[in-house]
Write a structure and sequence with these properties.
With 621 residues, the chain is an alpha+beta fold. 35% of the residues lie in helices and 24% in strands. Helix 6 crosses helix 8, helix 8 crosses helix 9 (426-445) and helix 9 (426-445) runs antiparallel to helix 10 (451-468).
Length: 621
């Protein structure tokens, strides 16, 4: 499971519970996942004892973001040895630095091994790995992707080999007798091991700085290598640490004092994670987690327009205005000719995989991009920005205004926000109503005629209340055509978008019904809907719990809102990452961790909670 993360918009590295690199994405966060496996091992020369750094091998690990820049750090202790590993990515260069500090009590000779197997361009064949003694480097490459390792001090030995395709375990076995004896080049399913011979003491660190330069050609990585050599390795370590320290100090807003210390830490980590998960293209990935490949045959490494739109709004709230602008620019590039948005896209802008039949639509996603455009203007008050994104908003609004059928003129059927059911859904309808009204505001700001969208918004809004409200049971049904009466937390999000005013008694009745039925009596938290079986039966979802928090805030229950915010913070991982959901009996994280949407919703609700302290009250959505 991912425990820590760092990136620069092109490179994104995740760290797992063993302190190893878990994923390495390049050239965009979410695309491609280039790494198959990485591990560190230690050989005690005097004891003739080898162990990979894993729990149960006589070592224990502690993980805590390091310093004000919140850089990933893992500290192993065992057998009288302490190994601290800190990872960081340079803000300017595509350069990963792994600083390894070792102490031993009593002092003794040790051999440190670093193993890496790549899956370059997300396949594990046709790779090459070679040791280049002339440059004191080790290179993995395939086609247009190159990965060049070098270190200070230089590794004592390095070997290359193969794994998997011939039934081989991997070249890491060459290290387990304490000495490397392999060859300097390999191809196919290529991997490699590097060795450093050290003699650490108890009173000061023995330090190894391992660098990985990443690029689209060998000359490109070689230039970075030479640049580091010329400037000195210490300089690049200091620059990375200094940049992220400055970024956190200058860009991270202060969370409200009313939150616990843990709540404040989760808030700050959430803003930082949003920064890491938006690429240089403007794509916002749903999660860097790739574990769903085993369970579902695909990953969360895509840009969904609903997730991205809500992340964009949270980034605006947190002051990351230029990042939101990049997302909207990416959206315009990916928008379909008819104004709608395809299910999801790769971070490079190509359409992603889908399980929806044509027309591959969740109409709330198109609506969310319009809402994010208006919110971006509301926070920045920049008419030039609105003018730039006017074609995006206009085309999307025209699509939504025309995507209607039936006597009630509700939106035509599409897939719901849970991506499971085809029909006319309460949340999707509310999202369309909200988006068309916001599109009319955009038109007014630019001196254009948005009256048709405003009229359509009012017509659909009136029809939605009439058609979706179930007076007998005192709640909104979640879907029509076909009708689905199951209680669904997405109604909370529909209320957030103005399905009915919060002063309308139906709002409170709906919120009460949802909390009464979907609240987990064991570990707490709110499930998605009755009968949900995704990764377990009615597991609590963090976004749903946060929607409930905002609903209670809007209904005047500020203390309950804070309780729910703190519940979510308490269910972050020890390194303060928020999962998609938690197990309904154990409270352990389930499915994608971290989920960008969970973090953006946390940021948004914390800002709403802070606004409620002031005379102006909570801003409209």
């Amino acid at each position: 499971m991912i425990t820590q993360i760092t990136g620069n918009g092109r490179l994104l590295v995740t760290v797992n519970e063993n302190g190893d690199w878990n994923e390495l994405f390049y050239p965009y966060p979410g695309q491609y996942q280039q790494l198959r496996e990485a591990r560190l091992g230690l050989y005690d020369v005097g004891e003739s004892r080898f162990a990979w750094l894993r729990r149960g091998n006589g070592y224990e690990i502690q993980q805590e973001p390091f310093g004000p820049g919140h850089l990933p750090e893992s500290v192993w202790t065992g057998h009288g040895i302490r190994i601290a590993v800190r990872d960081q990515i340079h803000p300017n260069h595509d350069l990963v630095t792994r600083v390894i500090r070792v102490r031993a009590d009593p002092p003794r000779p040790l051999r440190l091994f670093a193993y890496h197997a790549f899956q370059i361009a997300e396949s594990m064949y046709q790779d090459t790995a070679f040791v280049d003694d002339s440059t004191e480097s080790l290179v993995h490459y395939k086609r247009g992707f190159f990965f060049e390792f070098f270190s200070e001090p230089h590794f004592a030995r390095a070997v290359c080999g193969e794994h998997t395709l011939k039934g081989l375990r991997g070249t890491y076995v060459d290290a387990e007798d304490g000495r490397l004896e392999g060859r300097p080049v390999a191809h196919g399913a290529a991997d490699s091991v590097m060795e450093w011979d050290i003699e650490p003491t108890a009173d000061r660190d023995t330090e190894i700085r391992l660098f990985l330069a990443v690029g689209r050609s060998l000359p490109a990585t070689r230039r970075v290598h030479e640049y580091v050599q010329a400037g000195g390795p210490d300089r690049f370590v200091r620059e990375s640490e200094a940049f992220w320290t400055t970024w956190v100090q200058r860009r991270l807003p202060n969370p409200p004092d009313g939150l616990s210390e843990l709540g404040r830490k989760v808030y700050r980590m959430s803003v930082l994670l949003l920064r890491h998960c938006i690429g240089s293209t403007g794509a916002v990935i749903a999660s860097p987690d790739t574990r769903s490949l085993v369970a579902a045959g695909d990953t969360y490494n895509y840009c969904w327009w609903r997730d991205g739109g809500y992340v964009s709004k949270a980034m605006d709230e947190a002051g990351l205005y230029e990042n939101s602008s990049r997302f909207l620019h990416f959206a315009r590039q990916c928008q379909s000719p008819d104004g709608s948005f395809f299910h999801r896209h790769f971070p490079d802008g190509e359409i992603g995989s889908t399980w929806h039949p044509p027309p591959h639509l969740q109409i709330d996603q198109t609506a969310t991009v319009i809402a994010a455009t208006w919110h971006h203007f509301k926070r920045g008050a920049d008419p030039d920005m609105l003018l730039e994104y006017w074609p995006l908003a206009k085309d999307a609004a025209n699509f939504l205004a025309g995507f209607r059928n039936g006597p009630a003129r509700l939106p035509s059927p599409s897939f719901d926000l849970w991506e499971e059911r085809f029909g006319t859904h309460a949340y999707s309808t509310a999202a369309v109503v909200h988006a068309l009204e916001r599109a009319s505001r955009i038109a007014t700001e630019l001196g254009k005629d948005g009256s048709a969208w405003r009229t359509a918004s009012r017509e659909i809004g009136a029809a939605a209340v009439a058609e979706f409200w179930d007076d007998e049971n005192g709640r909104f049904v979640r879907s029509l055509a076909p009708r689905d009466d199951r209680i669904d937390a997405s109604i909370l999000l529909a209320l957030k978008l103005g399905l009915v005013p919060w002063t309308d008694p139906r709002a409170r009745r709906a919120v009460d019904a949802i909390e009464s039925r979907l609240w987990n009596r064991s570990v707490g938290g709110l499930a998605r809907y009755e009968g949900d079986e995704y990764y377990g039966h009615e597991n609590p979802w963090l976004v749903c719990t946060l929607w409930l928090a905002e609903a209670r805030l809007r209904l005047g229950e500020r203390d309950r809102c804070r309780e729910l915010i703190e519940w979510v913070a308490a269910h972050a991982t020890p390194t303060r990452l928020l999962p998609e959901q938690i197990d309904r009996t154990t409270g352990e994280p389930k499915s994608a961790t971290p989920l960008t949407w969970s973090h953006s919703t946390f940021v948004d609700v914390v800002h709403k909670y802070a606004e409620s302290e002031h005379p102006g009250g909570i801003s409209e959505e």
